[in-house]
Write a structure and sequence with these properties.
Blueprint (H helix, E strand, L loop, with lengths): L3 H17 L16 H8 L3 H8 L8 H10 L4 H11 L8 H9 L4 E4 L5 E4 L1 H6 L12 H7 L1 H6 L3 H20 L3 H13 L1 H9 L8 E7 L3 E10 L8 E7 L11
Antiparallel strand pairs: 1-2, 1-5, 3-4, 4-5
Helix pairs in contact: 2-3, 2-4, 4-5, 10-12, 11-12
Length: 258
């Protein structure tokens, strides 16, 4: 369920972009800037009442499909579309074609991440491995999972060390390139408030390149599982990444996880 602040921001965002959208051709004088609610509703294939309620910040549910239609009806840019889905707490199904094809083509655990390290797509093997993270029609952020979910502490050996390592990789791979993006700064500020460990690690300013290698997980049903991790960047969308976990041939004496 979205908070009151999220609902308010979502409503304000949709209304602002509706009022600046290209109006439907009309022969008479228009007193309303942009699109009327009824026009946006018709263009997006949603009800005018639902459109009014979401703009008013009421506790209504917005599916990924409805948000996709709204985004197209409002002609949102890629950053604006990302912001819309983040405010609504939903998973954007419009992921890079190459990334989706790669994730669905392999039988080993694989998933895609966007610039905020939200999981944008994943296969069944990844969903089985990362139970509690890769499930449901909502945003699934890797950093939020690692730092805030109790299941991550059980899944990842040497959890605190790995959490700090992952944060240092995020700072290098994404924050340094996008720190002027208000969405990125807001995301970091929120996690600093929610997780004392994240806040403490953030203040240390550690930076690491995102590396592959050995990853071990303590799966609740399948026991200890060992993989070799590989990360790839789609050429057409360098702000996304593909993460592939290939089962290791033999178990190591010591390994890290993420």
């Amino acid at each position: 369920m979205l908070s009151a602040d999220q609902r308010r921001l979502l409503g304000e965002f949709i209304r602002a972009h509706r009022e600046r959208a290209q109006p439907v051709e009309s022969r008479g004088r228009r007193r309303t800037p942009g699109l009327r609610r009824e026009e946006l509703a018709a263009k997006a294939g949603i009800s005018a009442t639902w459109c009014a309620w979401i703009e008013q910040g009421r506790p209504v549910q917005a599916s990924s499909e409805a948000l996709d239609r709204l985004s197209r009806a409002l002609s949102l840019s890629r950053p604006e579309r990302d912001y819309l889905f983040e405010l609504a707490g939903r998973l954007d199904l419009d992921v890079p074609t190459s990334l989706l094809a790669a994730v669905t083509a392999v039988r080993h655990p694989a998933y895609g991440l966007d610039r905020l390290w939200q999981a944008c797509c994943w296969n069944k093997a990844a969903a089985r491995l990362f139970r509690g993270w890769l499930d449901g029609d909502h945003q699934r952020n890797l950093l939020r999972f690692v730092f805030l979910e109790s299941s991550a502490r059980k899944l990842i050996p040497r959890w605190e060390d790995r959490a700090r390592h992952i944060l240092a990789e995020f700072r290098d791979a994404n924050y340094a390139r996008n720190f002027q993006d208000g969405r990125v700064r807001s995301f970091v500020d929120l996690l600093r408030r929610e997780s004392p460990l994240f806040d403490a690690a953030w203040k240390e300013h550690d930076v690491r390149h995102r590396e592959g290698g050995s990853r071990v997980f303590n799966h609740p049903d399948e026991g200890r599982r060992h993989f070799i991790q590989h990360t790839f960047i789609p050429s057409e969308r360098p702000d996304y990444k593909l993460v592939l976990l290939v089962p290791a041939v033999s178990s190591p004496n010591s390994a890290s996880s993420k």
